[in-house]
Amino acid sequence: MTDSAALLTKHSFVELGARQRAKALLDAGTFRELLDPFQRVMSPWLSRQGVVPQADDGVIIAKGSIDGLPVVIAAIEGAFQGGSLGEVGGAKIAGSLELAAEDNRKGIATRAVLLLETGGVRLQEANLGLAAIADIHAAIVDLRQYQPVVGVVAGSVGCFGGMSIAAGLCSYLLVTQEARLGLNGPQVIEQEAGLEEYDSRDRPFIWSLTGGEQRFATGLVDRYASDDVAQIRQQVSELLQQGLPAQQRSTQAELFLQRLARLDAEPQIEPSVVRDLYQGERS
Amino acid sequence: MSSYSLRGLNWFNALSAGAKAVDGLTASLKVADGFLGEQPVRFIAVVADPDNRFVRARNGEVGLLEGWGLAKVVDEVIAADQDKPQKRAVIAIVDVPSQAYGRREEALGIHQALAGAADSYARARLAGHAVIGLLVGKAMSGAFLAHGYQANRLIALRDPGVMVHAMGKASAARVTLRSVEELETLAASVPPMAYDIDSYASLGLLWETLSVEQIEQPSASDLARVTECLNLAIDDVAAKGHDLSGRLGAANRAASSKVRQLLREQW
């Protein structure tokens, strides 16, 4: 196939909304949404602050199967309030992961896929968003004892704040070039540490440190896919089929501490330094 | 900014008097093994280290070394007690102003370091250790997620300097396109947005709040009071199990329960 022909058959995943993304990953005809928008379970906190709530609170929970394996997908809608998590959306994710773990204890091997486009805590619901994210962390670690939890950061919001920690807890992570993964949003770092430390308007700089390609090159994610529905679906399916990883990334404290001990933390850091430090022993 | 809180360090020193300090850690981590009454415990605190190798983590922030370091010291507890019927309790003394904000931190994956810490605390809980978070100062955002928020029980001291929040006021104002004054006005009427511990308590996330005489440097009676409360919390975990369900049920967190109930019905 020529490049242009390949381009024509490619369907962008990044351009899809959260619900379409979930549908695109699930086997045809198996998508079943829980707490769908018609049930109107909305944020009790936004309207009193002059923010219009959304009927699904920006989180889609869908059950179905991927190549025959039972899964629950939690997809965050980056277009609603920056994908921020409030009480309801956070509880939807935490609650569904808790039920998936319960399934496994009853002998039903439910896996989970998280589609992460989120700035983290919704500041209008601050402490309830933070609490919900702590619940999500707890539920991922619980479910991960039985079956993999696959995180996908496709872009264009990226994955930040407490939900970047959730990403770090996933059994596997898949990103595209569009993705960014980091704890602190660029604006906040600039606010807290100054322009010289972090220029939030310098997009190439930000992608060079936290973009999907760099995260893959430094081993902080497992898969790097192009922005194509078929390819992402294929890779998510492969990861689910793999079962649990030999060792979770987030349980490798000793390895990361050894690496950090070798770093000269004095000079300001470059992307290549991280590549060498984290992947040096591989090459 | 050179001033930093000493509360975490002071409470750690007071609670762990007579306990055996764990050596060989980064200076920003204080860890000791001892007893609360009959109960074996490991005390853990993140404290300021003005000479931290990472310049953005010199005021007690949870950064790369702190996140992975917490993971390591909690993993040690899980491994050491693996075959023992009585699991040591883990007491996280929380006085953390924020996660570290910096270029090095993002580049080196601070999110992964904090995931390491949250992971270990959560696995300790699942392995049967009582994990208790004692809030003596700030418990902010990612720092709290890494150090404290995976606890079975959260206990907060009643003091204006004890606060839980997702983001400092200046940054929160910038991100939500409000002035700090507007933010403060809203925070006064929306409990989850408030910075004070009473509003936080109304969300049902705390197991107990305690008043003390000397928050900065505990008195003997403060110490006795907090020790008793920690013991009660450990007993309560033993009696009621190791999940986080005790955090649900408050009127100001009703939607969290309702969503779970509906999910279960539709599952």
Descriptive overview:
The complex is a heterodimer of chains A (283) and B (267). Chain A has eleven helices and seven strands. Chain A has 283 residues and is of the alpha/beta class. In chain A, β3, α3 and β4 form a beta-alpha-beta unit. In chain A, α4 packs parallel to α5. Chain A is globular and about 55 Å long. The two termini of chain A are 32 Å apart. Chain B contains ten helices and eight strands. Chain B has 267 residues and is α/β, with parallel strands linked by helices. In chain B, strands 1, 2, 3, 4, 5, 6, 7 and 8 form an eight-stranded mixed β-sheet that branches.
Question: Which features characterize this protein?
Answer:
heterodimer; A: 283 residues; alpha/beta; 7-stranded mixed sheet; 11 helices; 41% helix; 12% strand; globular; B: 267 residues; 8-stranded mixed sheet; 10 helices; 18% strand
Q: Assembly type of the shown chains?
A: heterodimer
Helix content of chain B: 40-55%
Order of helices and strands of chain B: HEEEHEHHEHEEHHHEHH
The unreliable regions of chain B are none
Largest sheet composition of chain B: 8 strands, mixed
N-to-C SSE string of chain A, H for helix and E for strand: HHEEEHEHEHEHHHEHHH
**Radius of gyration of chain A using CA atoms only:** 19 Å
Low-confidence stretches of chain A: none
Decide which structural class fits the backbone of chain A. Answer: alpha/beta
Biggest interface: A-B, 85 and 79 residues
Tell me the number of strands of chain A. 7
Count of individual helical segments of chain A: 11
C-alpha termini separation of chain B: 51 Å
Structural class, judged by helices and strands of chain B? alpha/beta
- The pLDDT mean of chain B sits at 95
Q: Order of strands in the sheet with the most strands of chain A?
A: 1-2-3-4-5-6-7
The N- and C-terminal alpha carbons of chain A lie at a distance of 32 Å
| β-strand amount of chain A | 5-15%
